[in-house]
Design goal:
single chain; 2 domains; three-stranded antiparallel β-sheet; globular
């Protein structure tokens, strides 16, 4: 093959499939997993994912499952859960609140660096006071926007402060070097 000849690769572009909320019927199956009947098909143990989790709790919700080959497969996207019946909305809302449980950071008491890539952050949250351990603080303790602080501890628990300007001055001065 000549080095001057370029080969063109073609990729199939993913399409966003918006689900018709009037045809969705979610229910808890015998194993207490959420399953779905949609367009004449039944999908067991579906997974719901917020596509824009920091900005909307109830819009653009991906609905997926593992197909017969064990491959993760998206069924489609719920554009707005408000289009669901009250019962369906409540079922999905409870699932998503559990899955995306994220205590709000209300105060920062201290941050200690152990010089081995970990920081220990003593915080007050909506779930009480706790000290969280964060590995690779540059990636796991950061600002996602001008006001949104996001933290992930070594156990994968997530914490957020949606408006750091709402924190007291001492908390802001402690955060200053890290964000």
């Amino acid at each position: 093959m000549d080095n001057n000849t370029l080969t063109e690769e073609k990729f199939e572009i993913d399409r966003l499939t918006i689900l018709d909320c009037s045809k969705l019927r979610f229910y808890k199956d015998e194993g207490n997993f959420i399953s779905l009947e949609y367009d004449g098909k039944t999908y067991f143990n579906v997974r719901l994912t917020r596509l824009i989790p920091f900005y909307s709790d109830t819009t653009y919700i991906s609905v997926a499952y593992d197909n017969e080959d064990g491959e993760f497969t998206e069924i489609g996207v719920i554009k707005d859960m408000a289009e669901l019946s009250e019962e369906q909305f409540k079922l999905l809302d409870e699932y998503l609140k559990y899955k995306y449980y994220m205590p709000e950071i209300k105060k920062v008491y201290s941050i200690k660096d152990n010089s081995r890539g970990f920081i220990f952050v003593d915080i007050e949250t909506t779930s009480g006071r706790k000290t969280i351990c964060i590995r690779d603080w540059y990636s796991n303790f950061r600002m996602l926007s001008e006001k949104l602080l996001y933290a992930v501890d070594v156990d994968g628990n997530k914490y957020a402060c949606h408006d750091i300007d709402s924190l007291d001055r001492k908390s802001l001065s402690i955060l200053e070097i890290y964000v």
